[in-house]
Design brief:
It is a single chain. The protein is of the alpha/beta class. Helices cover 25% and strands 26% of the residues. It is built from five helices and ten strands, in the order E-E-E-H-E-H-E-H-H-H-E-E-E-E-E. The protein has helices at residues 48-62, 84-91, 108-121, 130-147, 158-161, and strands at residues 8-18, 24-32, 38-43, 67-70, 95-98, 185-191, 197-200, 203-206, 215-221, 231-235. The strands form two sheets. The chain has an eight-stranded mixed beta sheet. Strands 7-8 form a two-stranded antiparallel ribbon. A hairpin with a 5-residue loop joins strand 2 and strand 3 (38-43). The chain starts with 7 loop residues before the first strand and ends with a strand.
């Protein structure tokens, strides 16, 4: 069936960009694929801690999604593997889903919103400071969600499309433990090339011939001990 609001949200980073005077910033943008409800967080850097705090702030306004779809770049995947951002998702009951590398069209809803952010917001105004940019970005987010009508939602605004269900609210960062939760899933969509290798988190796993030139979803299941093979493979549409 059709996706419901809150089921899948796409997120992406924009930047680095510079304000007048050389003040650097990034935007962390997220958009719900069903309702098109969007959120913008302006951050001065993309350290794990800053991005985690920005996500909690976004979720405080938009509610927690069931799944958060991300690309494979920083700040979502740390060079050494899965880091604070993924742990935060799992602790909040959100399943992170990573699209295949070099396929940005899979996050087309947020890529389109990034374009809107650029053309209708960032290039339309002069910002005197980071604080001014943060304030105006929040105004733009509020205006977008109340007024922007999408063909995909039969002309409804994101606010009108949002589910009547009460959105789940995130736990504050300070309440979360430093260890990984005992259960949760991380999903990686990957394309298997002719060498039959699934490359994931510094591992290269040989796949059967039947999966060459196919997309698979590799599911890392925290509830399964690594020794028992905590990586399950599904065809992409399963």
């Amino acid at each position: 069936g059709a996706e419901r609001p809150g089921e899948l949200r796409e997120a992406a980073r924009v930047g680095p960009r510079d304000l007048q005077g050389g003040v650097r910033f990034y935007a962390l943008n997220a958009i719900d694929r069903a309702s098109h409800g969007a959120g913008i967080e302006i951050v001065p850097d993309i350290s794990d801690e800053r991005v985690a705090a920005a996500l909690v702030s976004l979720w405080g306004r938009l509610g927690l999604p069931a799944r958060l779809q991300l690309d494979n770049g920083g700040p979502f995947v740390a060079p050494k593997g899965l880091g604070l951002v993924v742990r935060l998702c799992l602790q909040q009951g959100v399943t992170p889903r990573f699209i295949p590398a070099r396929e940005p069209w899979r996050n087309g809803t947020v890529e389109h919103f990034n374009d809107t952010f650029d053309k209708r917001f960032f290039r339309q105004e002069r910002f005197t400071s980071l604080a001014h940019l943060v304030e105006r970005a929040r105004d733009f987010e509020t205006f977008h969600n109340a007024n922007h009508r999408y063909r995909a939602t039969n002309g409804r605004t994101p606010a009108e499309s949002a589910d009547e269900d009460k959105p789940r609210t995130p736990r504050p960062l300070g309440e979360l433990p430093n260890e990984w939760p005992a259960a949760g899933r991380v999903e990686f969509v990957r394309f298997i090339r002719s060498d039959r290798k699934l490359r994931l988190l510094n591992r290269a796993i040989t796949m059967p011939d039947t999966l060459v030139y196919e997309y698979v979803t590799a599911v890392l299941d925290l509830a399964t001990q690594p020794a028992d093979g905590n990586l399950r493979l599904l065809r992409e549409d399963e």
